[in-house]
Design a protein that fits this description.
Bound molecules: adenosine-5'-diphosphate, magnesium ion
Strand content: 25-35%
CATH class: Alpha Beta
CATH architecture: 3-Layer(aba) Sandwich
Distance between the termini: 26 Å
Shape: globular
Number of helices: 7
Number of domains: 1
Length: 221
């Protein structure tokens, strides 16, 4: 009952022109609720693709994926997107903030779209928790990389998702900011009891997770 995610013989192939490349090969994986997992592996090994599959942003070519015992591989795009919105927060290497929205507005938008009460108040509470009280009304362009990533994390977790997916969340940051972001992330999942699956090249960050998964040539080692 403690299972959060289950992947059964999952394959992902990309078609480019006439070529069919096999990116993920027979992936089997079971993760538990509240578990923190890091995914490591060389560039091009399929880490981002795996995150995309788990987040329902990409469809498996074959195999089954279950999220909270529901088989998402047989759902429509709309249903998958509903599940994702409520249960999965995704953090990318690039921050993808809306440039003409302030920090508060960037976070509040997600809450607004999901019909939360007091989106602005909620957004401010989250940003304050991440040490950004003095940045509420700044636009992304007026923020440092580390600050932008903190806003992006606040946005990703605003819905209190059961699962947080992060694809090289510190990939664009200097050491100091990387440390701050990793502390924020791990403190948050501990406090909220969320699960984290994170791709990273940073060994220190990877070692903070309870479990480390290595991918090589599209296979879990
Ligand atoms: N949309 C796509 N179309 C075709 N090939 C892709 C696409 N996305 C990724 N790939 C290929 O899949 C492989 C794995 O990519 P990716 O999952 O991004 O690896 P990683 O995140 O480990 O660097 C790479 O060879 C990459 O070129
Ligand atoms: Mg990648």
């Amino acid at each position: 009952m403690n299972t959060l995610l289950k992947l059964k013989k999952v394959n992902l192939k990309y078609q480019t022109g006439k070529k069919n490349i096999s990116v993920l090969k027979d992936i089997n994986l079971i993760t538990k609720k509240k578990e923190s997992i890091s995914i490591v592996g060389e560039s091009g090994s399929g880490k981002t693709s795996l995150i995309m599959l788990i987040g329902g942003l990409e469809r498996a070519t074959s195999g089954k994926i279950f999220f909270q015992n529901q088989e998402i591989t047989k759902l429509s795009e709309d249903s998958i997107s509903e599940i994702r919105k409520k249960n999965i927060g995704i953090i990318f290497q690039s921050f993808y903030l809306i440039p003409n929205y302030t920090a508060v507005e960037n976070v509040a938008l997600t809450l607004e779209l999901n019909k939360f009460k007091n989106p602005e108040k909620e957004a401010k509470m989250l940003l304050e928790r991440f040490g950004l009280k003095h940045r509420f009304n700044n636009l992304p362009g007026q923020l440092s990389g580390g600050e932008q990533q903190r806003v992006a994390i606040a946005r990703a977790i605003a819905m209190k998702p059961e699962l947080i997916l992060a694809d090289e969340p510190t990939g664009n940051l200097d050491t100091e900011n990387s440390i701050m972001i990793s502390e924020i992330l791990f403190k948050y999942i501990k406090e909220e009891g969320s699960s984290l699956i994170m791709v990273t090249h940073d060994q220190k960050l990877a070692n903070k997770a309870k479990r480390k998964i290595k991918i090589k040539d599209g296979k879990i080692k």
